[in-house]
Design goal:
Chain lengths: ~600, ~270
């Protein structure tokens, strides 16, 4: 019995071996017979593997061979149907004669498109079988294949944008080029990653830890926004753009970024970039009186509960000072002067209502305290909000808030700047297409309710871009964070971050085939198993954790595009290194040449200058 | 033709000289009109040094030749401006367009400033030349840079004027001046912004945006000359006072009386000619 069973077993093994060898021989014979097609298919497959291509690219390449094939068939005479066969015969005849180049040229018109199609099908089969878990020799084959393909795709994307001019900043149809596509899921695959200008005009969220290329990405988006906006304006398609960046880190790093932003934006067509508060100022006092009162009260941190009484007193006094009959204050000094004892009584003496007088007498006891708080506040805020100047004075504003070492000051400044910008968007002298970017939002998120702005900004023609280092940096509470991320209709940019799971959920999941195979004995798999449809996240959280510097995932509408961001390079630094102080021995300091007097010609033409 | 020959015989000039002089007047007039967008006949007469009636005859000839259009667009003399054929005749790559009604006053003011400046002995002696706003604007083509502020004109004083190579030596030879004619007062902020931009500019108009303002490079305009109406004077002087060290490069004068766009205000020079 045992001998018989062993005999059957051996016969089965032998039969299987013979069948396999036979199939292999048949395939080998077919490969030899169709050697030109086989060579092209091998080459196409290898190129797709090395470059991490999609199978579609091979198919498109085969389709582009169509004109060549048509021309070849037309030139082959009347018997077009048999032309491939004749070419095949001629190929072997020439190959046997040793004329390999001629043989290759003879068969190329037929072999190249066929080979590319075969390579595309084989590559597609390979990707799908590994993606569904049905292919590969070992259990880890699919994972290793995916990692290897990611490396190949990333390398190809880096090479694609390395050449100068390979990735323009903008393209026709108002598209902004962010960089090269590494991989897409649920989005259309292309060579360059482009997003529409209108999507930049929507709210966006950018999340990535320090050193992952967040500033590079933002700079690219800002430059694209500015260049496209200016071009649209020149074509009469929109209002001029205005970019306002709140850099909530502060410090010397922010100054360096500001200089880089200025250089890059200048290359993009921006005429002027104002750096606040170092080089330019804004005037808080241009706000409408009621808005000014609200903003001034919000600038000071106040309590709730029992402390709300003092808040009400402060608001009443500030309202009286701002909305005085003589008009709103024009400067910090003006406001503080109005909080001096006796000023309010005098200002409202003739025109004030009994309610005003009652309020003044009631709150008079707290006037000194309120004045003290505002004196302290304005001393800490500096003169950046004391004018002159307005958002209409420049194409871009880079506002540096010292959020690292003076958080409360930065919070107040951010609040004031956002109120000023909202007021400008509503009542500004000229309508602008505004993009507000709050970089390192976590520094000011406690007192800057950006989601409120998010929800009403669209009507104001204002788009908001919020960047943070982590999900937690987007807001104080989970509700606030989710509200901000859910309103980001322009998409979410995700760079390397240790906890991407909350954001990954916004991309949702997709249905994929998952195959389970039975492992007989490592590394042998049985030819049995089961497949089922499962939900897999669109965004791979593990991939996000492993993103390299300059790589980003753009999540938009249940899809994701992994991008290698193209770095923006501005013209040489606008401000060079600080000059080295001359040594005492060097005494010849060049002085600017005094301008000669031109009064003679001007007086002759226009008369002398009028003395006022 | 016979009348021209007789006139030449009376004055002693040859007939050929007269033809050349007439051709010069035509060329100068066409180019001047093209550079200034359009001019009124009284100002054209001053520019060409001929009576207004003669300027009107010239304009009529241009109009009949298809080189120009003329019309009474507002108070004062008729306006004349070049057509596409006229601009092509001058070899100027400008877009043919009639003077906008909203800009007539400004165009007249700028032309008056140019005439007043070119009438000075220093201007002619130093071989200075006027670069008009239209010429500056044409350098941009259709680029985004059109948003840059463009002055109403530039006056270039050649370097040769200080080397004794020209008739008159001027101390400011080699300088380039920006000319601004201010008829209506703008806001102080706007005026300061324009003043700073013009004084800080380092690149020519139409240059790459990276070269517009390059720190460390010599400014393009050594000074800016503001010609103001009475209404604009206070704002411009306040703006100059608020730009600190740059104020020394700002000269402010009143607009010439002929610059005011009003009915029947023939230029003083022409009144003298009459």
């Amino acid at each position: 019995m045992n001998r018989r069973w062993l005999g059957l077993l051996v016969a089965q093994v032998v039969f299987k071996g013979v069948v396999r060898v036979g199939v292999a021989l048949l395939l080998a014979a077919a490969a030899v017979a169709a050697a030109p097609v086989f060579v092209v298919a091998i080459g196409g497959f290898a190129a797709a593997w090395y470059g991490g291509w999609q199978p579609r690219r091979l198919m498109v390449a085969a389709a582009w061979c169509g004109p060549m094939v048509l021309a070849w068939l037309a030139a082959s005479g009347h018997d077009t149907a048999a032309a491939p066969f004749h070419a095949w015969l001629a190929f072997w005849k020439l190959a046997r004669a040793g004329a390999i180049p001629r043989a290759a040229a003879t068969i190329a018109p037929a072999a190249i498109p066929l080979g590319l199609v075969v390579a595309g099908l084989a590559w597609s089969y390979r990707i799908r079988s590994l993606g569904s878990g049905a292919g590969g020799l070992s259990p880890a084959a699919a994972v290793a294949f995916d990692h290897r393909q990611w490396r190949h795709q990333a390398r190809a994307a880096r090479a694609r944008i390395a050449a100068p001019g390979s990735a323009p900043l903008t393209m026709r149809d108002d598209l902004v080029v962010a960089g090269a596509v590494i991989r897409t899921v649920g989005h259309r695959a292309g060579r360059l990653a482009v997003i529409g200008y209108q999507r930049l005009r929507s709210h966006q969220v950018v999340i990535g830890t320090t050193g992952t290329g967040k500033t590079t990405l933002l700079l690219r988006l800002w430059a694209g926004f500015m260049a496209t906006g200016l071009r649209r304006h020149a074509d009469g398609l929109g209002q001029p753009p205005l970019l306002v960046v709140l850099d909530c880190k502060g410090g010397s790093a922010a100054r360096r970024v500001a200089d880089r932003v200025r250089r890059v934006l200048r290359e993009s067509g921006a005429r002027s970039t104002a750096v606040w508060p170092d080089e330019a100022s804004l005037s808080l006092w241009t706000l409408p009186p009621r808005q000014l009162t609200t903003t001034l009260v919000d600038l000071i941190e106040h309590g709730t509960g029992g402390a709300a009484y003092y808040t009400d007193v402060m608001e009443a006094l500030i309202g009286l000072a701002v909305e005085a009959p003589c008009g709103p204050p024009l400067s910090t000094h003006d406001l503080l002067a109005r909080l001096e004892p006796g000023w309010l009584s005098m200002a409202y003496a003739s025109t004030g209502t009994p309610a005003d007088h009652a309020m003044i007498s009631t709150a008079a006891g707290h006037l000194a305290d309120v004045a003290l708080r505002y004196r302290t506040l304005f001393r800490r805020l500096g003169d950046g909000l004391d004018g002159p100047g307005g958002f209409e004075d420049a194409d871009a504003w880079y506002c540096i808030l010292e959020g690292t070492d003076q958080i409360s000051v930065a919070e107040s400044q951010a609040r004031a700047l956002v109120d000023l910008l909202a007021s400008f968007a509503v009542r500004g002298p000229v309508k602008r297409e505004i993009l507000l970017c709050v970089d390192e939002f976590s520094a000011v998120s406690r007192r800057l309710p950006i989601w409120q702005l998010y929800e009403r900004a669209r009507a104001l023609g204002l788009a908001v871009q919020v960047s943070a280092q982590s999900w937690q940096g987007l807001g104080a509470s989970e509700d606030e964070r989710r509200r901000i991320a859910a309103s980001a209709e322009g998409g979410i940019w995700l760079l390397r971050t240790p906890e991407p799971e909350p954001i990954v959920t916004f991309a949702g999941s997709r249905r994929v085939v998952d195959t389970a195979r039975r492992l007989v004995r490592f590394p042998f798999w049985a030819h049995a198993g089961s497949s089922r449809l499962t939900d897999r996240p669109v965004v791979d959280a593990a991939l996000i954790r492993a993103l390299d510097v300059g790589q980003a995932a753009y999540i938009y509408r249940a899809g994701v595009t992994y991008i290698q961001v193209k770095r923006m390079v501005g013209s040489p630094a606008a401000v060079g290194a600080p000059p080295v102080p001359p040594s005492p021995a060097v005494v010849a300091v060049p002085q600017p040449r005094a301008l000669p007097d031109v009064s003679s010609v001007l007086d002759a033409a226009f008369g002398s200058e009028r003395v006022t | 033709m016979a009348r021209r020959k007789r006139a030449a015989a009376i004055t002693g000039d040859t007939w050929c000289d007269k033809r050349v002089a007439t051709a010069d007047i035509h060329a100068d007039g066409l180019v001047f009109t093209a550079e200034m967008y359009g001019v009124q006949l009284d100002q054209l007469a001053v520019a060409l040094g001929v009576p207004e009636r003669r300027a009107a005859a010239l304009a009529a000839k241009w109009t009949s030749s298809g080189f120009a259009d003329a019309a009474r667009l507002g108070p004062g003399s008729r306006w004349v401006w070049l057509t596409r054929a006229g601009l092509a005749r001058c070899g100027l790559p400008y877009t043919p367009v009639a003077p906008a009604l909203s800009r007539l006053a400004h165009l007249r003011a700028v032309t008056a400033v140019r005439l007043a400046l070119t009438a000075t002995p220093q201007f002619a002696g130093a071989q200075a030349f006027w670069r008009s706003e239209r010429r500056l604007r044409a350098r941009f083509g259709r680029k985004i840079g059109l948003r840059e502020h463009i002055p109403d004109g530039e006056v270039h004083w050649p370097d040769a004027a200080s080397a004794g190579l020209t008739g008159t030596d001027v101390a400011w030879a080699g300088e380039c001046w920006a000319i601004e004619a201010e008829l209506t007062p703008k806001t102080l902020v706007k005026t300061v912004t324009v003043m700073r931009e013009v004084l800080a500019r380092t690149g020519d108009y139409g240059c790459p945006s990276a070269d517009v303002t390059v720190p460390g490079r010599a400014p393009r305009h050594a000074r800016v000359i503001y010609l103001c109406s009475s209404a604009a004077w206070p704002v411009v002087t306040r703006a100059r006072d608020s730009i600190g060290g740059l104020a020394g490069r700002v000269e402010i004068r009143m607009l010439p009386p002929d610059a005011i766009y009003a009915p029947h205000s023939p230029p003083a020079a022409l009144r003298g000619a009459r």
